Amino acid sequence: QYDVIVSDEPVVHKTILLGDSGVGKTSLLVKFDTGKFHSGSFSATVGIGFTTKVVTVDNTKVKLQIWDTAGQERFRSVTHAYYRDAHALLLLYDVTNKTSFDNIRAWLGEIREYAQDDVVIMLLGNKADCGLDRAVRREDGERLAREYNVAFMETSAKSGQNVELAFIAVARELKCRS
Ligand code: GTP
Ligand code: MG
């Protein structure tokens, strides 16, 4: 005889935002969470924290525990500790900052070193609203993503372009795998 426990509680998927300081990780999460964008002076994230969001994919609830990390070099060792049990990683660069794009290879190297082999990775070229200041072409982002066999989108935390879509795509992939 068995006691069957039926729960509506969705499984929690740990998702981490990564990328250089200033690429827009906090802005992207705030936009997704509240719909708001704060322009003005930039305050770098110190430490680490998470926001929980439930996304509906094909009538199924997928719960994302989204961790916002500090991009500054001096916090990297702290961040590494969070990679191991991550289910998904959103890796951001800033399309107006070529260095942040060039550093993606190093980020992917760290991911290979510290994260699980089957972690879901999504590369995001953020600040896509900044037409005139653009320093990285969309094709370059696409090519890099293809080279590493990861998904890719351009986003804007300011305009909201692809913000929900990026998280939904990750949730969909996580749902397929679980
Ligand atoms: P760290 O916490 O240091 O790792 O940086 P971060 O990646 O969290 O960057 P943050 O979200 O704080 O954004 C840095 C700056 O870029 C802020 O001034 C934001 O207002 C601005 N910003 C972020 N996303 C966008 C975007 O999509 N478009 C534009 N135009 N500005 C953005
Ligand atoms: Mg931040």
TrEMBL record:
Cofactor names: Mg(2+)
GO BP terms in the entry: protein transport
Enzyme Commission number, as recorded: 3.6.5.2
Molecular functions (GO terms): G protein activity; GTP binding; metal ion binding
Catalysis performed (reactions): GTP + H2O = GDP + phosphate + H(+)
Keyword Protein transport attached: yes
Signal peptide range: none
Entry keyword set: GTP-binding, Hydrolase, Lipoprotein, Magnesium, Metal-binding, Nucleotide-binding, Prenylation, Protein transport, Transport
Family statement: Belongs to the small GTPase superfamily. Rab family.
Protein name as catalogued: small monomeric GTPase
Organism: Phyllotreta striolata
Full protein: residues contained: 51 to 228 of 257
